[in-house]
Amino acid sequence: MIGRSGGAAALRVGARGWGGHRTIGAALRAAGPGAVISVQPGTYTENLTLERDITVVAEQGAGTVRLVAPRGTPLTVLGGAGEIRGLTVQGVAPDQPAIAVTGGTAVLDGCEITGGRVEVTGTAAPTLRDCRVHAAGGPAVRLGGDSRATLERVTVTDAGGTALLVEHGADATVSGLAVNTAAGHGIQLRSPATGSFTDCEITRTTAAALAVEDDARPVLRSCRLTDGLAQGVLVTSSATGATPAPAPDDTDAGSGPEGDAGASGNTAGVLLHDCEIARSGAAGVQAAGPVLLTLRSCRIDESGGVGVLAAQNAVVRLTATTVGDSADSGLAAGGTAQVEMRGGGLARSRANGAFVTDEAQLTLVDCAVTDSAFTALHLAGSARATVRDGELRGTPQHGARVTERALLTLTGTRVESAELSGIAVDGGDLTARRCRVTDAGTGISLTSAHRPLLDNCEIADCGTGLEVTADTGALVADTRVRGSRSAGVFLGERSTAWLDSCEITDSKGSALVLWNGARPRVSGVRIARSAKNGVYVADGAAGLLTDCDVSATGFPALYVGKDAKPVVRRCVVRDTDEDLKLADGAEPVFEDCRADGVKDSTLPVSAAGPAPVGARAVAAGGASGTAPALGAEVTEAATESLEDLLAELRSLIGLERVKQDVETLVKLMQLVRRRTEAGLPPPPLSRHLVFAGNAGTGKTTVARLYGRLLAALGLLTRGHLVEADRGALVGEYVGHTAPKTTAVFRQAVGGVLFIDEAYALVPHGQGNDFGLEAISTLVKLMEDHREDVVVIVAGYPDDMGRFIDANPGLASRFTRTLLFDDYDADELVGIVAQQAEHHRYELGEATTDALGTYFAGVERDDRFGNGRTARQLFQRMTERHAARLADSALLTSATPDEADAEAETKSLVTLLPEDIPPLQTL
């Protein structure tokens, strides 16, 4: 054993005999605890073992104290608190340690280690201070076991592999580490290792500058990772499992006093604070697997790939962090990754600013995405992104683009200077609130099978302000479109957009364009100072415009094209040269409209006033005129009498119980009105109804009549019917359902809201479904507008109870259920006969008997449609009738005589038993 004799005296070693000892080992054997051994310059070929509190110091002067082992490890530290200062330790082989520390708290100060690594294992807790390590192999410094090493101002150069490896249960405290050129990683942590790294500089590494694997948990502060050939930071895990939950905002990652990242199990909690990652050869920061990575006040610049890349189920949190000049996208996320960025931003990326795909989720709060070469924010797959109080600016493509099944939620966000579209939805869905889009080719372009929501937004100084493309619906509320270089709002072919309380001003083209086949609802929209038309309704378009104000237009305020059938209700045109221009064949309907300050006015302002050719006007108290249906949703009672409406009810085939119930309700409501007129309080009465019955039993027909009856009684102002289902009321994400439900309810004010298959709002086994939000919103609106709207919910009898039980407020509002019985065979024959009479066909007794036999044999399964089945049968009969007569001699006769003409007319209107198709072909 070393140190059998001697005390705390200083000992001197000289290789040429100029000291008390010729070898360091001899001095160690002679030294007592606390002794200081001074070593003269020279080369000492020996293996040293230190296990006590002894200090070995290289003497100052010319030359170096070099320790070279004949074999094995030159310096082994087994324990104690010894200190080695100023020595150069040369290893035998790159794959062997030059210094091995397995125990104790030794200090290596100012040493240089070459030809082999520094290895710390066991429970050792050494300190390396101001040391330089040159290792041809790797790792240059390895910390393993349960060691607790401290590295201060250590320099690693030209490492043949990883510069610093921390693995197993080791915990490293590192400050001032400098890594210059490594054939592997700069810093690598594996397994459950932890570490704190401060003021470190890692440069020119072949692999990632910082690599973290599995559940290792390092904290880096004020570090620089630059000029590597691979990633700046690479965090991975081979574990499987759920995505780790992000830590609270005030929690750091790491171990000990630095806090805990909140990751548990096989997840990595990694924190970088005030660090710089620059000029990496691949991604600046990359995370994959169930890992948690947090960057705060960091800078990621000039990445050779993506600036920040999150894959699989990684969680990445960025706070006050900037990503600039990436060779690829500034930020990309895929798999089920979750990325949250607060403050900071993404700038000058040479692809997308941010790209999110698969089922990844991105949250940007108070961030700026600027000057990207491609789209600033691109969503694909089933990705979801939320942007709050952000900025998307400066792109030759789109500010934000949503494709496939992706979902984007924007709140309080500015989108500026996008050469294509500020926001483009190409198949996904969008919710935008309090957003501002300026200086874009198209402000917002929507192409979606969903119904995107724009609420309280502003679109300014764009080409076209808002474009809703073919077959797309959208809900646009309280939104302002101004200064468009083309159309203000363009609603494409067959669009079903809803515009409510919006403003369109200063358009260089027409303010509002309804293209071919569009059927929008436009309510409370103000249009002013358009260079062309205020509203341009293209050929074949329809739609409903209510309570709109159009002024100061360069062309006629309203243009209606051929076969266009818009309903224009309670609208005002003012302060313009011409209010209306109609194409030949236009069929608009004007109700209660007004023109003020118009030089050349042809707008119908009342039923008694002159109406242009092709236009019909319906004013309050005026002559009747029926508006064309808007998607079978809008019907006006106009001045229909109560007696006529009751007669129409009684003429319905079948439904005897329902007709009796409705007439009873009418009598009760007449009593209510008379008591009210007499100043008496009305009896308790809920006008809302449940219609329970199978498909095709006339529920919609009776609902429409019910609204008209209430209007005739003066209990509803309009009595029109608005049909809705789950798709019209329920959104696909948080915050979308209430506005959708409210918008539909607004359309029904003054009439009836008819919700078919209402039980679909309460799916089986889905307690957190958004349908419950729609029901809650509906209950509140029914209370707030109890005198203005009647709500009828309909569906199969067995399912309506589940709907009523879904919310306590429903049972008190829906106190009466009308049961719609299935039609029997005779009633179905009557429906066919009614259809034949309406279309001027005749049945005859034999055909009527054959129909009775036919309906008696129809299987009443899930496909049986009651009245719908009867109407379908009549259609098939007319088709078979036409086929039967196609080759008839009567029809092909070039010069029929009088008898033939009479026979031909008879054959044209008579349906025979053979015109009834076989049961299985219907």
Automatic annotation (TrEMBL):
SUPFAM superfamilies: P-loop containing nucleoside triphosphate hydrolases, Pectin lyase-like. Belongs to the CbxX/CfxQ family. Residues 685-824 form the AAA+ ATPase domain. It holds the Pfam family AAA_lid_6. InterPro entries: AAA+_ATPase, AAA_lid_6, ATPase_AAA_core, Beta_helix, CbxX/CfxQ, CbxX/CfxQ_RuBisCO_ESX, P-loop_NTPase, PbH1. The keyword Nucleus does not apply. CDD domains: AAA. Residues 237-265 are annotated as: Disordered. The keyword Nucleotide-binding applies. Keywords: ATP-binding, Nucleotide-binding. It comes from Streptomyces ramulosus. This is Right-handed parallel beta-helix repeat-containing protein.
